[in-house]
Amino acid sequence: MDVDPKTYNLDIDSIKRYITPKTKAIIATHLFGQPCDIDKLQKICDERDIRLIEDCAHSCGAEYKGKKVGSFGDIGLFSFSLPKNITCFGGGMLTIKRPEIRDNVRKIQASFPEGRKTKIVKGVLAGYMSHFFLSPKIFSFFSYPFLRILDLFNVDITDTILNKELEKFYNKDSESSGGRLSNIQAKAGLLQLSRIDEVNDRLRNNADFLSRHLKNISRIHLPRATALSKGVFSYYRILIDNPDRLKRLLLREGVDSQRGNIIDCSKLKFFRTKEKDGYPNAEMLSNRGLEIPNNYLMKETDLLTVCNILKKLDRKGDLR
Ligand SMILES: Cc1ncc(COP(=O)(O)O)c(C=O)c1O
Questions:
Q1: Is 117-182+196-315 in the same CATH topology as 12-110?
Q2: What does DSSP say about strands 51-55 and 25-29: parallel, antiparallel, or unpaired?
Q3: Which of 114, 250, 310, 313 has its CA 20 to 30 Å from the CA of residue 73?
Q4: Is 29 in the pocket of ligand 1 (CB under 6 A)?
Q5: Partners of 291 in the β-ladder
Q6: Which CATH class is domain 117-182+196-315?
Q7: Does residue 57 line the site of ligand 1, with CB under 6 A?
Q8: pLDDT in tens, the chain (320 residues)
């Protein structure tokens, strides 16, 4: 089914059309950290004895009506892979309400092998490498010039190459990749969990700042916190007619934005469906989205620099 173009989440008002007697569960993603309208969804599920699974991969710490996401549905799933607001170099967490589901999950989990050491070491290395290459000095003197040189040859490693790889991965036949989280990963996660509210507050304040300064640029559609919720803004994703062009213009001004790995699921082998008109909102969000940098370490002066560059590009007519 399609998504709501305002919230980027499931279009809950049209969900009933897609429910059949075979529907066992609904997976609702709180996309880009903004909670779905869970009350409405829960009512639909409860009336039909359908399980509700919350995908909280982007939204650890987000709240709906004052309650954390992941505490509403039968299962909440959290991802701790690299770009998330908690990262354990892979792995994740489940919140489970019903004891019978919990026991089943524990049984499945017990059958998983110990996480392979090579995989963990690779994850930790990838984490340290991205930290190293994105640290302010290395980024200015090495990573940024490298990206600019590639740009001269029309090569975009972050999005074009990596996302092609990702699309291939998503299109592979599903296979179990289960492995247990190691103690060191769990320790790293617990340390981050203890300051997740502080990180989320900073991300939220940054997003507020960006939205206040960008609100008069009519060619940019800004992300909005959904009503009744307190979202997480690890992803500040704007919509614009030509995001690839804006990405290149921003890079030339020293700002590294991301198209992100957002693929319209209906295009993937696993989900391919026969909806005649396709899913125009999902397609639009995938075609027009661009992530503007938002990081809890960014200060107002950094955010202002990004806003001023976008305003300058707008004045020059470059956002068309
Ligand atoms: C919305 C969403 N759900 C689930 C996942 C899967 O998480 P993992 O990579 O930890 O398997 C991701 C990964 O980025 C995601 O973006």
A1: no
A2: parallel
A3: 114
A4: yes
A5: 237, 258
A6: alpha beta
A7: yes
A8: 889 988 889 989 889 999 999 999 999 999 999 999 999 999 999 999 999 999 999 999 999 999 999 999 999 999 998 778 998 888 899 999 999 999 999 999 888 887 777 877 887 888 788 888 888 889 889 998 998 998 888 888 777 767 677 777 776 665 556 678 888 889 999 999 999 999 999 999 999 999 999 999 999 999 987 778 899 998 899 999 999 999 999 999 999 899 886 777 777 777 766 666 788 999 999 899 999 999 888 999 999 999 999 999 999 999 98
Domain edges within the chain: 12-110, 117-182+196-315
Residue type, 293: P
What predicted TM-score, i.e. pTM, was given to this entire model? 0.89
Q: In testing the pocket of ligand 1, which one of 75, 81, 181 has its CB within 8 Å of the most ligand atoms?
A: 81
Report the candidate in 112, 75, 107 with the shortest Cα–Cα distance to residue 94.
75
Q: Whose CA is nearest to atom 7 of ligand 1?
A: 79
Q: What is the atom index within ligand 1 of the atom nearest the CA of 55?
A: 3
C-alpha 16 to ligand 1 mean position (Å): 26
Q: Which of 172, 179, 166, 173 is nearest to 119 (CA)?
A: 179
At 221, phi and psi to the nearest 5? -95, 125
Q: Which CATH class is domain 12-110?
A: alpha beta
